[in-house]
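Chain A, query sequence.
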Amino acid sequence: MPTYQAPLRDMRFVMDEMLDYSDHYARIGKGDDASPDLVTAILEEGGRFAREVLLPLNRSGDREGCHLEEGEVRTPEGFKQAYAQYVEGGWPGLASDPEHGGQGLPASLGMALSEMICASNLAWGMYPGLSHGAADALRHHGTDEQKSTYLTKLVEGVWTGTMCLTEPHCGTDLGLIKTRATPTDEGVYRVSGTKIFISAGEHDLAENIVHLVLAKLPDAPEGSKGISLFVVPKFLPDDDGNTGERNGVTCGSLEHKMGIHANATCVMNFDEAKGFLVGQPHKGLACMFTMMNVARIGVGVQGLGLMEASFQNSLAYARDRLQMRALSGPKAPDKPADPIIVHPDVRRMLLTQKALAEGGRMLVMYTAQLVDITEHGDDASERERAEALLGLLTPIVKAFLTELGFEATNEGMQVFGGHGFVEEWGMEQFVRDARITRLYEGTTGIQALDLLGRKVLMNQGEMLKVFTKEIHRFCQAEIDNAELKEFIEPLSKLNAEWGELTMTIGMKAMQDREEVGAASVDYLLYSGYVTLAYLWARAARTARQALATDSDEPAFYRAKLDTARFYFQRLLPRTRGHVDMIRAGGGSLMALSAEDFGLGFEI
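Chain A, predicted structure.
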């Protein structure tokens, strides 16, 4: 069975040394609440909960899966008890407003906890995962009555939330939805329709499930401009705010999936269910984006968690597994063969996972600081800047980290050889679970279009410039630092090229809009690799500074420098291939005719 230890030392390196979270918390007015001692206690206790409570349920939950019995979903053995411990420990409200029963701590602490949960038991973590986004959507767009009815229950974890968008005939193109909401004389709406792929849509962990549902009113205009948002609870709250009568919401079936077997992915049927309008009519998509952006960052954290879990287990295996002798001669002469960790290709797979997981952690915690600033920052210009950076980085966090997560789990399974392909080691589960992260909450292609089309080209690259200027300032500050030359020079060149590539795509798109779609995924991956290069260069600077002060952990900091060097020499060159594909344009993608494809219409 896989093992897992929360990487607390590396988390503290990123938070305390590299990103100076202590100063960050002080600047947003959370220095007293999120004191160093409290942060340490939260991280340690979160790591213990992940290791002792969630990890033992990961493999058994995958084997047992969920079961639908007379419209009710039964989760795997132990899941309900684990959720009760989670609620009793106050974890659901860690970063929520005290006004609604939360602890008022920064969102960044919640992201660190989320990584541990995702690494130890991704499927379990999805049950409370969407509740944060549902609470945020109601906090920003709900009426006072809706807030008083639902927020405290969601924050405390007594109730959980879902996001109901997708329908059988449409995925991302939400303008095509058929779910309808009919107004009644009582001021409520009757919601009818079918939603699919609803994570945690039905389960036995919480007293009630609060569904946020996209639907169209009778007078709705065509397309996405006619979508409204409704809160539709499984049980209607009574006059005291507790669960009352059952609403017209049922689980029609459970999806049979490649992975995340222990999470209930439901087909949800709404049959004249009572719903309550959130926000303004026909403005539901804008309200839902509040929840979707939280969810997208959360999925990126899922990719990170799986990278870390895969790395830890493949590293342990490579240390113990004996096979062949090193090409340069025996490294363990007292044994019949050398541990496979001595072989260069195994090193490549391990270091790929290590560099991606540690770089991904830097990206998540950097992004988490931006979330903190948007929520708690006092300076309006600083909040505006953080919002711009957050808008740019959200599709990168979601898509790039999930692409890397799938790569890392595959490399981890490869380290095990044939043993990785069988169930008992648990590596194949990481691969299966990681695969969905590239799909839900917007596929990699959708995130790429969001990044290039909406976040970059739509505002003439102004949002991108906010970030590239930050990278430029960092490079200029270290340009004379000989010890960092190997990182600063390539980073500076890539940062300048990033802007040039963007301009090239923009010029082509003025002639042919298809060029945006043709370049988008390569552009996102290029952007991700450059972003991680910036963060790895900052990590290298921090490690150099620590070594210069006679640190009592020289091995840790030397390993950080070596990993940064591996990233720059063995992973960052991937940008060259993406540049070539971007510059090639969309000609070869769009060249085949309808006749070539055997279609009955023009393309």
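The mean pLDDT is 96. The chain has 18 helices and eleven strands.
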